Automatic annotation (TrEMBL), chain A:
One of its GO terms (biological process) is amino acid transport. The keyword ATP-binding does not apply. It comes from Peribacillus glennii. Keywords: Amino-acid transport, Cell membrane, Membrane, Transmembrane, Transmembrane helix, Transport. It comes from the Bacteria. GO terms for cellular component: plasma membrane. The lineage of its organism: Bacteria, Bacillati, Bacillota, Bacilli, Bacillales. GO terms for molecular function: transmembrane transporter activity. It is found in: Cell membrane. It is a multi-pass membrane protein. Pfam families: BPD_transp_2. This is Branched-chain amino acid ABC transporter permease. The chain crosses the membrane at residues 6-25, 61-80, 92-110, 138-157, 178-199, 219-246, 258-275.
From TrEMBL, chain B:
It comes from the Bacteria. This is ABC transporter ATP-binding protein. It holds the Pfam family BCA_ABC_TP_C. PROSITE patterns: ABC_TRANSPORTER_2. Keywords: ATP-binding, Nucleotide-binding, Transport. Residues 2-250 form the ABC transporter domain. GO terms for molecular function: ATP binding; ATP hydrolysis activity; L-isoleucine transmembrane transporter activity; L-phenylalanine transmembrane transporter activity; L-valine transmembrane transporter activity. The keyword Transport applies. One of its GO terms (biological process) is L-isoleucine import across plasma membrane. One of its GO terms (cellular component) is plasma membrane. SUPFAM superfamilies: P-loop containing nucleoside triphosphate hydrolases.
Length: 288, 258, 331
């Protein structure tokens, strides 16, 4: 049970990052491989606020998210906007290029030595039934569920969400209806970066803060998004939770070194049975 | 030669083809007409095995096609063109036609990788064949043009050429003259007649251009809402009141839409 | 001016061959520069193989470095543990890697786009882990030594052997993509529907692509093993896969010269920047972003554009005029 619960914690982080990926993909048709590195940079920024300027956790957290939003918006406005109609492979490789740039820059600015990063909430473990929770773990789960709910509601029920869905469906028609598609896309990138940033600040206390910390998270988030069908927001989170728990179970019962291998084996088997992912809906016959 | 026995195709709740039966005799030009959405293209897609009917059988030379996969149909002697042209857009006209020859070319990787003389010879023969087809279609000067640079009319011709190049017994043409000007249309109607008279093909034709249908067809089936509503010689269906009504309906909705 | 000269294919290839032949003398037999060259050859073979799969066949792989690792370990095991000679071990390494490619290709046939990307990503990530943990076969963390072929004596002759192999593989791949096989790959990329209608068995050819691509990549991995004399789990990791992907997109998709250009560019950049690892990443990253923004068809399009202007006959304008008349529903 304890193993499942700690798996869920990682699952939440994967789910958060996956949520960002799917949100951006759903709206702008781009897969952002630089998401993890953007999150890493955001986390370093928050760390700078914390340690250099000695601000409180909450202030640093919020300021860092503000930074993430601006960062995401700049990346979209400056680069990704120009690739809106480029072939998907070009888009993908550009985000890989950005991945390398951000990774290199972060190394230049903050160095390559891992540093400790504080948890959001300190305190002793609480026992519930037979399972121990740290307050921080409860915080991670809480924030994931809250954010997921918020974005689900925004996407489904608000005007902004409507604009996002409309832009995703049909760029031209949305423009004609007066939706500023580019602005909507930029906003989506900002939100995606925020989600990634939250995931980053949740990851850092567990893995230590360094330039590679988000790599595995991004990979797993990508896998989670795919498992969930890549177009479903709840699917992304559920995919993240499945992967987190599965990974932890494998690490405990089979082999911690090979957890990645087994996780991908699971994903490939799932995709073989359902090539459109778990939440991908049924495949329709292609119209010729 | 080709027999549809009680074929029904459904997409979710929509019945695109409803208990359709007809028979295409060998060596004839057989046309299917009907308003948009009648289910004509769906008929082709069943023959090509892209769609699987929920009921019925499709016999070709006495053999049921349902058990085959899409890529096996051409080896039975059935080739097709597409309503919205499905060309290999980054290839030239020549390359599109050569790709159409796929079933007849050797594909063993070892001689190919070494570019052995046998492969070179085969390629040269294939090119000659492609030039013959281009000659028939009068597009020889476009051989090395990328198909994406061509007008829709020329693209349709390449699409037809790619189906012809393997010398099928039965060729399925889905609206071959849509998007063509009258001169091109005239050329295609001559071509279709030559396919039958000189090359001995059986032709199954979907077309909206009635003058073409009337001119070339030996027999016509009229479809509406997935059902056969009339069948006979061109003259017979032309005067069938049921047919006239079906088309009037379409004209009215067209007008209403504008 | 130089661009014009390079359009003459024979001349370019001739110059390249001469350059490769005299290269060891140009660099004074320096081990460092010869290694740089061999690494470039390895990446050239890998990027051509990947381009066959992605550029021609339209099937994405983000785990190709995994095949390099398999190839490298194959020669290590075959040469050191089994004791096979060079001329058997290297092709066998290709065949072993090709078999793994078959294994990956089978499920990949059902997957498209991001889904295929994740499956191949998983492969690329898993291989180093598997190698690391399969101590009995691979020596785990400490890696494996490769027995260098005695018959060539020095690295100097081995260099020429590898250059010749690279040239031959380039020729083989060029023949494949220009053949009926290559056309079948492109057909699948451009329209699966039409490909099936003209008799192309999509699953079979997708699997074939994976096998061919991984076979040659395995040979490249084998060359690496023989040249360095040692393989370890982290020689080719997922970032190397990303790098090869960048090579083909930046060099030019569905282009053999493009693959080579990309491979040369990204193999040589680290030579100028490797005093600090972060800088290499930044320079390569910026190069990738800029080239794709401003030359979306890759560097090779610089050459192609001139060429097209040269060969395009005049007066083809009327082709672009739409043939008029839409359906008339009169009966
Ligand atoms: N793959 C498909 N999925 C869902 N509906 C389809 C599909 N293919 C065809 N249809 C529907 O079947 C009906 C018949 O289509 P079609 O055969 O293309 O008509 P026609 O060629 O006569 O214009 C239409 O209502 C069309 O929307
Ligand atoms: Mg139709």
């Amino acid at each position: 049970m304890q193993i499942i619960v700690s798996g869920l914690i990682f699952g939440c982080i994967y789910g958060l990052a996956a949520l960002g990926l799917v949100l951006i993909y759903k709206t702008t048709d781009l897969v952002n491989f630089a998401q993890g590195e953007m999150a890493m940079v955001t986390t370093f920024v928050s760390f700078t606020f914390l340690s250099q300027f000695e601000m409180g956790y909450t202030t640093s957290f919020l300021l860092a998210l503000l930074f993430a939003a601006v960062f995401g918006a700049i990346v979209h406005q400056g680069i990704m906007k120009r690739l809106q109609s480029a072939p998907p492979l070009n888009q993908l490789v550009v985000t890989l290029g950005l991945f390398m740039v951000f990774n290199g820059l972060a190394g230049l600015i903050w160095g390559h030595k891992p540093a400790g990063y504080p948890q959001a909430i300190k305190g002793d473990s609480i026992k519930m039934g037979s399972v121990f929770f740290t307050p921080n773990e409860i915080f991670v789960m809480g924030i994931t569920l809250t954010l997921m709910l918020i974005f689900f509601v925004i996407f489904r029920y608000t005007k902004v969400g409507l604009a996002m869905r409309a832009s995703a469906q049909d760029i031209k028609a949305s423009q004609l209806m007066g939706i500023k598609v580019t602005n909507v896309f930029t906003a989506t990138w900002a939100v995606g970066a925020i989600l990634g940033g939250v995931a980053g600040m949740m990851t850092a206390p567990i893995t230590f803060l360094d330039t590679h910390m988000m790599f595995d998270v991004l990979i797993m988030a990508f896998a989670a998004a795919v498992l969930g069908g890549f177009l479903s927001l709840p699917g992304a989170v559920v995919g993240g939770l499945i992967i987190g728990v599965f990974e932890n179970l494998i690490a405990f019962y089979l082999s911690p070194e090979l957890k990645l291998v087994y996780t991908f084996l699971l994903i490939i088997i799932v995709l073989y049975i359902r090539p459109q992912g778990i939440f991908g809906g049924t495949q329709s016959v292609k119209k010729v | 030669m080709l027999t549809f026995n009680d074929i029904t195709v459904q997409f979710g709740g929509l019945t695109a083809v409803n208990s359709l039966s007809f028979e295409v005799p060998k060596g004839q030009i057989y046309s299917i007409i009907g308003p948009n959405g009648a289910g004509k293209t769906t008929v082709f897609n069943c023959i090509s095995r892209f769609y699987t009917p929920s009921k019925g059988s499709i016999l070709f030379n006495g053999e049921d096609l349902i058990k085959y996969k899409p890529h096996q149909i051409i080896n039975k002697g059935i080739a097709r063109s597409f309503q919205n042209v499905e060309l290999f857009t980054k290839m030239t006209v020549m390359e599109n036609l050569l790709t159409g020859l796929h079933p007849l070319l050797k594909k063993n990787i070892f001689p190919i990788a070494l570019n052995l003389p046998s492969v070179k010879r085969m390629e040269k023969d294939a090119r000659d064949q492609a030039y013959e087809v281009m000659d028939l279609l009068n597009i020889t000067d476009l051989a090395n043009e990328k198909v994406s640079n061509l007008s829709f009319g020329f693209q349709k011709m390449v699409d037809i050429g790619r189906a012809m190049i393997v010398n099928p017994q039965l060729i399925l043409l889905d609206e071959p003259v849509a998007g063509m000007n009258p001169i091109e249309t005239e050329k295609i109607s001559e071509l279709i007649l030559r396919l039958k008279n000189e090359l001995g093909y059986t032709v199954l034709l979907i077309e909206h251009d009635m003058s073409l249908v009337m001119k070339v067809s030996d027999a016509v089936t009229v479809m509406n809402f997935g059902k056969k509503i009339s069948e006979g010689t061109p003259a017979e269906v032309q005067n069938d009141p049921v047919v006239i009504e079906a088309y009037l309906g379409e004209v009215e909705t067209h007008v209403a839409a504008k | 001016m130089i661009l014009k000269l390079l359009e003459n294919k024979r001349l370019t290839i001739g110059l390249l061959v001469v350059f490769m032949l005299i290269y060891p003398f140009l660099v004074g037999n320096s081990n460092y520069f010869m290694t740089l060259f061999v690494i470039t050859c390895i990446y050239a073979i890998t990027s051509m193989s990947l381009n066959l799969l992605i550029g021609y066949g339209g099937q994405i792989s983000v785990g190709h470095a995994g095949f390099l690792t398999v190839g490298g370990y194959s020669v290590a095991i075959l040469s050191s543990t089994v004791g096979l000679p060079f001329f058997l071990a290297l092709p066998l390494a290709g065949i072993m890697t090709g078999s793994i490619g078959l294994l990956i290709g089978l499920p990949a046939v059902r997957l498209k786009g991001h889904f295929l990307a994740v499956a191949t990503l998983g492969f690329g990530l898993s291989i180093p882990q598997i190698v690391l943990n399969w101590d009995g076969l691979t020596g785990g963390y400490s890696g494996l030594a490769v027995t260098k072929p005695l018959m060539f004596g020095s690295d100097f002759s081995l260099f020429y052997v590898f250059v010749v192999i690279t040239v031959i593989i380039t020729w083989l791949i060029q023949n494949i993509v220009k053949s009926s096989l290559g056309r079948a790959f492109i057909a699948i990329r451009d329209s699966e529907v039409a490909a099936q209608a003209i008799g192309i068995n999509i699953s079979f050819y997708k699997t074939t692509m994976f096998v061919i691509s991984s076979f040659f990549t395995g040979i490249a991995g084998g060359i690496y093993g023989y040249w360095v004399g040692f393989v370890s789990p982290n020689d080719f990791i997922i970032t190397n896969s990303f790098l090869v992907l960048a090579m083909i997109v930046v060099g030019g998709l569905a282009s053999i010269p493009g693959s080579i250009i990309g491979a040369v560019l990204f193999s040589v950049i680290p030579h100028f920047t490797d005093s600090y690892i972060g800088i290499t990443n930044i320079v390569i990253g910026i190069a990738v972003v800029l080239i794709i923004l401003f030359k979306p068809d890759g560097i090779v399009s610089l050459f192609k554009m001139n060429k097209q202007k040269l060969v395009k006959p005049a007066g083809k304008g009327e082709l672009l005029v739409q043939g008029g008349e839409k359906e008339n529903a009169n009966i």
